[in-house]
Structures are given as structure tokens and as C-alpha cells.
Hints:
This protein is an alpha/beta fold. Helices cover 40% and strands 18% of the residues. The protein has 19 helices and 25 strands. The protein is flat, with a radius of gyration of 29 Å. It binds 5'-O-[(L-methionyl)-sulphamoyl]adenosine. 5'-O-[(L-methionyl)-sulphamoyl]adenosine is lined by residues 13-16, 24-25, 27-28, 53, 230-231, 233, 256-257, 259-260, 288-289, 295-296.
Amino acid sequence: MPGDKTKFYLTTPIYYTNGLPHIGHTYTTVVADAIRRYKRMRGYEVVMTTGTDEHGVNVERAAQKAGIPESEYVAKMAVAWKALWDELGIPADEFIRTTDIRHVRTVQWLFKLCRENGYVYKGNYTGQYCIYDNAFVTDAKPGDNCPDCGRPTETVTEENYYFKLSAFQKPLLDFYKKNPEFIQPETRRNEIISFVEGGLKDSSITRTTLRWGIPVPGEDPHVFYVWFDALTAYLSAVGGPEYEKRGMWPADLHLVGKDIIRFHTVYWPAFLMAAMLPVPKQVWAHGWFLMDASKMSKSKGNVVLPRPIANMLGMDAMRYFLLREVVFGQDGNFSYDALVTRYNSDLANGLGNLASRTAAMIEKSFGGKIPKPGPRLPQDEALAKTASEVIGEALDRFEKFEFARSLEAIWSAIAAADKYLTSEQPWAMGDSEADMQRKATILWTTAELLRVVTILAYPVLPDSTAKVWTLLGQPGRVSAVELDGLRWGQLAAGVQLGKAQALFPRVDKQEAIERIEAMANEELNPTPQPAPAAAPAPAATSGGAAAAPAPEKIGIEDFTKVEMRVGQIKTAERIVGADKLLKLTVDIGTEIRQICAGIAQFYEPEKLIGRKVAVVVNLAPRKLRGVESNGMIVAASVGPEGRPVLAGFPDEDVEIGARLK
Ligand code: MSP
């Protein structure tokens, strides 16, 4: 059972494993993560589940194509999905795989309950089946395409176990009526109600034509149909048959895309009612992120990947954009242009700028200690009033999942603070007692507003608000602040500011977009890595990993293929969004080259200028984190973590461009 806190259990869909995550999947998971963080600040004990949907024909085919067993294929994919969510800072509390034994048990148990209660029977079924969506297409004739994905359907006849969905028309309609919050948003609720009012047909829940599925005990060759299997994952993740022990079921919230609302609001509650199990409290269907007005898919070549965006602008920027740009529930267009524009205007110039200038002024005038405010003037009171109203508005909107409106409210407070500073001009005040007192009031007021904004924005911007929290010298973690107690005026004077860390460095739009696209391209079409025997010597630009086991011996003719020359570093700079890389320009005698080197964590860029290094000059150019690199700097790879140490010429003055032999 959860402790004395109220529990909140929420889920994302469990994603198909025949592809890798794109921004659409990331969207649902980001929303779930933001709600989870928010609910925790509201004092709930929260569990968030996501996972992978690993059975079905598509997986069978994908594994076949990859030439490996299904189990191996799905294991690899599940690792990739989980690792990406972890890397992006949106990890599941429960990551459920439909091949987990805890899930297999739960599906078989649910079936048994439905059968014992008289809602399952055997029958034959012939129909048009969409292999891509793993569903029979109701009312389709042979030759028809699937209305959802447009692909051709196939005629399939087989013996199935049927679920008596028809028996649930009235119970479902009664349930929707009694629980008007169950289906959100309102438009979807109306759609589903009229669908159910139109009559429900029984639905097959097992297959005999499918091999890769959960077996129906004692009923070989029946395996469970993917939706009976997949939906049950929500329950398997929090205890399955022993769900009462964990105390998390029924789910408080299933977040889904609008494409799968019917499965979640008709089939799923019906399965649970048939088994006499508690039904989830709410299903929220969001819209799609579209690319050039159509749904993303790898086959159309219009997928947007999350990792390159996170690398370039930070994960917080992506989270902010996804939640700020579209009204939750509606479709929205994804564009890199809009993303970078919002990054620069709202994050770099907005929150980032307010935080750094407030801290700089407190540093300069008050030795970095938050000043004690003096008497308040009407303009100070007005800002305080705005902030208090924003607290109410932002929380109220977030509670209703109106994320864009909540963020809009928070950013209106930032804009009000900018305006306040511009008109009060604390930087123009002198050192007289009156000026210092006035300055103290202005800077305390601004810092207090920043504290309020930081707390409110935390669920959406967890990394950067944690940095602002440290900057403001606040105790504990921002995530631990209780939202219910948040009021204007709680900022203590006398607190020493903490360490400043880069928040949102401004980026050049064109360059940022090019780099995101280059990284995405690299991820979608990775350049084949050279075979180990042909790999160049351990080098900084290759990521600095420790050397691979010694390859077989090579002849001198192979060695001479590698052209290494003495180069001199002319410029060196850090790369936004690539913590490990430095962008160098290197004079190699005949020309000046741009080369990226993975040494940023070990070498200060300024100290490298003028240094002579060994350069592999005949490597094919490639892009690293979206930045062109034309050559490679040679370095030793030292210690277990492969610390790069640049090869050099400390004793003799060697000529630039001289060849290493
Ligand atoms: N495996 C099923 C779900 C089973 S849940 C018991 C499935 N998987 S999926 O990989 O296709 O992911 C579907 C979910 O990903 C959608 O419902 C939606 O949440 C999200 N999205 C996929 N593409 C999307 C967009 N382009 N835009 C927004 N969300 C999208 O269906």
C-alpha cells in the first residue's frame, strides 16, 4: 500500500518495438513526466509507467528481417527505448515489457477471470485485418485499405476466442455518465459515446494465425490478440493479480494519443468490468505532432528525433516547446524554426536573462547576498500582486492539463519583471543610503519573483530550474517544494547566492537548425564505422575510448595510408550542446582545417592556442554533433575512462606541416 500520501498512478501507452522513438512518442512521455513531477510537488505518491509492446506480426517480421529470434530482437529494442527515456531524463518508475513474466501471468489471469464470469466464448471469424495496426477493420470489404494507416487490409479467417463486448454497451454508457471526467477532452468523450451508442460487436481476443504472442493456457495454438495483451500491461506494471498489495490500481490517468482512444475507453474498461476489477479514473487523449501537416513516419522520411534537439538545445528546451506550442488535446505542427525561436525568445532572453541579470546585480551591489527589502512602493506591490495571481493561474491551468496556458501565465510574470526592471533601473542608482535601500527592495522583489517562477516552471523545466534554485542559494531541492504552500514573500533576506551555471546560451537559428538536422541525419543513417583492423590509432575525436584489443599486424604500406602531419592550433572554442567537443581550427602547413576533438572536459580552449599537435589529415570529413570535422587530432587514451592526452612535440621546434612517419 502507498504510505500516508494519496497515490497517483499514470501511464503512457506502451510503445511498439518495431521502430524507435520519435518526437511524437517523446511528447506523451514528456507530458507524463511533467505531470508526475507536478503531482509529487502536490504531495502525491506517484508511479509512472511506460514500456514496450512487443508481440504481434510486425515484430515477427522485423525480427525475421534482422535475421534474429523475436526474443532477441525485442530485448534489443526494449533496451534502446528504455535507455533513451533514461538519457532524456524522463525515466519510467515502472518500465513494463509485454514479454515480462509478470505481464504474461497477468494477461492469463485476466482472461481466466473474464472467462469464469461468462464473457468469453469460442467462434470463427473472417474479416479484413490490418497487419500494421494489429486490428480487424470493422465493416471493411476485401480490397479495402485500413482507414487509419491507409495500407491494404488482408482477409483472415480463424478460430478465435471472443470477448462479449456487446454485453457492455449499457454498463459503459452508464459508466461514462456517472464519470464525466473519464474521457478527456470533451470532444473525444462525445465521439466515444456516440460510437458506443451505435452498438458494440463482440471482439476476438485470441489468434491462431500468430505465433509471437502470449499463449492462452491449455489452448494451443491460441495466443492473445495484441490489444488484450497490451492494455493489460498497465495492470501488470503495478502488481497484476496482486495489485491490491501495491495499492496503485486503478490507474488515475492513462495518457494516450487520439489514435488509440477507443481501445482505452471502450475495450479496456469492458475487459476490467468483465473481470470485476476496478476501472481507471481517466483517459486523456492528446493530439498529434505533425510534420508538414502529416503524421510522422519513418517511411515518409519526416520523423523528428528527440536526441539531436536535446543535444543542441537541452532537454528542457524540448519539453518547454512541446508543452508551450500546442494546446494539449489538439494537433500541432512541429517546426525547428518555431522551436529555436521559442528557445531564444522565451528561454535565453526570458528566464535565462532574468536569472543572470538579477544575480549579477545582487552580486555587484550586495556582495551576492539577497538584500532585505525596504518600504514598498506601488510598483513593487503591483509586481507582487501579478506574481500572486500567476501562482493561482499557473497551478489551476496545470491541474487541468492546460500546459500552454500555465506556461503562458508563468512567462507573463517574467515579462512583468523585465518591465519592472526596465522602469526602475536599479543599475543606474548610486550608493547613497536611500538608493541602496531602494535597490534592495527592487532586487529582492525581482529575486522573489524569480523564485516563484522557478518553482512553478519546475515540472516542465526540471534541469534549468534546479540551476536557478542553486543560483538563488535556496535550500534543498526545488522538486521538494510543496506547491500548496507557495506564496509570494517567502524569500529570506541574507541568503548567499550560489554558483551560476550556463542556462540557455543564445544560439544562431540557422546554425542550430543545421546542426540538429545533421545530427538527426547521422542518427537515421549512421556512417558505417571502420572495421577494427583499419581503425586509426586511439584518438581524441573518436570519443577517447580505451584502445580495442590489438589487431593483427599490418604491413608498412597500410601504415603509410594514414597521413599524419604536424599542425598548430589557431583557434579553439566550446560547442553549444556538445559538452565533450571542442571546435578547433588547425594550421597544417598547406591549409587551415576545422577539426572537432573530444577533449573539452580535459583541455581549456584558451590554453590550446599555438599548441603543436599531430593531425591525421586524410580522414574523410564527417559531422560530429552536427559540426563538420575535417581531420583528427591524435591523442593517447589514458586510464580506465580514456582521458585524452594530446600527442605533441615539446622538445624540438618542428615545422608546421611536417609529416609523421
Ligand atoms: N502499442 C500501442 C499502444 C498500446 S497501449 C496499451 C501503440 N504504440 S505506438 O508506438 O504506435 O505509440 C502510440 C502512441 O505514441 C500514440 O498513442 C501517441 O501517444 C504517441 N504518438 C505517436 N506518434 C505521434 C505523433 N506524431 N504525435 C503525438 N503523439 C504520437 O499504439
